[in-house]
Write a structure and sequence with these properties.
The structure is a single chain. With 158 residues, the protein is an alpha+beta fold. It is 61% helix and 13% strand. The chain is built from four helices and three strands, in the order H-E-E-H-H-E-H. The protein has a three-stranded antiparallel sheet with strand order 1-2-3.
Length: 158
């Protein structure tokens, strides 16, 4: 079953890199194309920082942190993959997001972002960013369910 979680990560990294490739090939830097009217546009941007362009240009920092985080996530996944599907899927998604953006930073020196919400002012993001968020949400769900099970006197496995 462990291989399934690494396969999930690999497929998500592939989706992330494919979406970035399509963006670079079809949308000029800084250009916006309507995707889902009134909801989502595609805007080709380069981000040399993290979320909201924090720590812009600190690539060595991002390289080191991403390697450390990826190693820790792989360790946790191997050690705990039988613990909970929520936890393991969450770790798989976080790993995919970290690796997807890491590939861009190493290969290009920046991260390709493209999704722009039209219904609210929100930073432009990519598939890897989305997988990070979904992964963290899955881990939070696991923690809530585990705490609830502990209060009920169960072992917390789902």
């Amino acid at each position: 079953m462990l291989v399934v979680y690494f396969l999930i990560s690999a497929l998500l990294v592939g989706l992330d890199q494919w979406s970035k490739y399509l963006t670079v090939q079809n949308i000029s830097l800084g250009e916006t194309k309507e995707f889902i009217p009134g909801f989502l546009s595609l805007t080709h941007l380069r981000n040399t920082g993290a979320a909201w362009s924090l720590l812009e240009g600190k690539m060595i920092f991002f390289y080191v942190i991403t390697v450390i985080v990826s190693v820790v996530i792989i360790y946790l996944l191997i050690k705990n993959y039988k613990k909970s599907v929520w936890y393991s899927v969450g770790l798989s998604f976080v790993l995919a997001g970290a690796i997807g953006n890491f590939i861009d930073r190493v290969r290009l020196g920046y991260v390709v972002d493209m999704f722009q919400t039209d219904f609210m002012n929100f930073p432009i993001f990519n598939v890897a960013d989305s997988t990070l968020v979904v992964g963290v949400i899955c881990i939070f769900i696991y923690l809530i369910l585990d705490e609830k099970a502990a209060k009920e006197g169960k072992n917390g496995t789902n």
